Amino acid sequence: MSRELAALGHPETAQPHERPEERRVVPGQPLETLVEAEPVTSARDLRTAAETGQDFLRALAEVGAMDLAAAVLSAFPLPTNPGPLGDNATAAYLRIVAGRVPDGNALADASPGSTVPEVPGVPEARRAALAEALNRWRPRVQEVLRAAPAGGSCWERERLEYRFAVAAHPKEMGEVVLAADEYDGGRLDWADLQVRPGATLGAPRDSVPVVRTVLPSPASYPGMPALRWWEMEDARVSWGGTSADKTDLARLLLVEYASVYANDHFLIPVELPVGSVTSVTSLVVTDTFGERTLVPAVSDDAGWALFRPTVAGSLGLLLAPEPPALRIPEEEVGRAGARVTRRWHLSRWVDGSIHLWLGRTKGAGRGEGSAGLRYDIVEAQP
């Protein structure tokens, strides 16, 4: 039984300026574009102002009106000072582009819709050329700003990570809510999500039965020992020479699987829709004698599961208010530090569609710093 993820929201109550609006998930849309996308207020930064301003100069060149560039630069100058929160890289970037490109954000605010702003130095006879350049430029700017949602962000500034929840509501059971409390950005996978029993995001009821008849194949990897006696094996792999220490748990598990349980695991190819939650409700095996056997699912009380999020209950396969001050818990920043990068992402999806969004990625820092303090130093005295 398969059902599409239908709603996106926040797993817990958050500040109004940070809580993302609960909204419907478009079928087939990458979740990263919904989770990581910065709001419009955040996307209109100085770099976006410089890049959209540079694009407006291209629009002027396209209509043969580069003689108006000086007047536009004078009317909509780009700030040269990034402010108290700007770093050295931002200040250096502004020193390069300031005076060369106009402020695209200010120009967009001054020309909403089809409005042509009053630009000192532009004669009346050239306003038609200015309007034509604006008409070419506006759709390209809207394409960038459309990538940013109008609501809040899923980014938790105190935790330096994303927090969100998605939901699907099958017709045969209650709503399934999957929450991610510690998503660092980059690539979102099933292991980043956990089930929240009893939670709800108001997803509509919807599910589609999936029935497939396929041939299974053994789960194997190159160099694995043969499953039958008297079979020629790969001479490039010396299985008898495999060594493992007591702490090499992953290697020990791999050896035990290949030598003991390899013929008990199979891969069953089943195509499923992207952005959905699927539960296996029935598995019937037909052997070489034509006998059909119903294989029950592993009980949730068994304490073992594969390709399932952590859950207190059955799920399936998955393709308090904050203080006003910024307080980052110590465990969120390791000894090597933490580095948060905010940049635009451009990706082509499986259906060929292009997705653009502004998001953040958290990674390790550059290592421990030094305060320059010296102690236990013997110095020669005159």
3D architecture notes:
The chain is an alpha+beta fold and 382 residues long. Among the domains are: 42-145, no CATH class; 217-306, no CATH class. Helices cover 21% and strands 17% of the residues. It is built from eight helices and 15 strands. The strands form five sheets. Strands 2, 3, 4, 5, 6 and 7 form a six-stranded antiparallel sheet that branches. A hairpin with a 7-residue loop joins strand 5 (161-168) and strand 6. Helix 3 crosses helix 6 (104-110) and helix 3 (46-62) crosses helix 7 (127-145).
Which features characterize this protein?
alpha+beta; 8 helices; 15 strands; three-stranded antiparallel β-sheet; 382 residues; six-stranded antiparallel β-sheet
What is the end-to-end distance? Answer: 86 Å
For the largest beta-sheet, the strand count, sense and barrel status come to: 6 strands, antiparallel
Helix-strand makeup class: alpha+beta
**Average pLDDT level:** 77
Break the fold down into its secondary structure elements and pairings.
Elements: E1 2-4, E2 7-9, E3 23-24, H1 31-35, H2 40-43, H3 46-62, H4 69-75, H5 88-97, H6 104-110, H7 127-145, E4 155-156, E5 161-168, E6 176-183, E7 194-195, E8 217-218, H8 249-261, E9 266-267, E10 276-278, E11 284-286, E12 292-294, E13 317-318, E14 338-348, E15 354-364
Antiparallel strand pairs: 1-10, 2-3, 2-5, 4-5, 5-6, 6-7, 8-9, 10-13, 11-12, 14-15
Helix pairs in contact: 3-6, 3-7
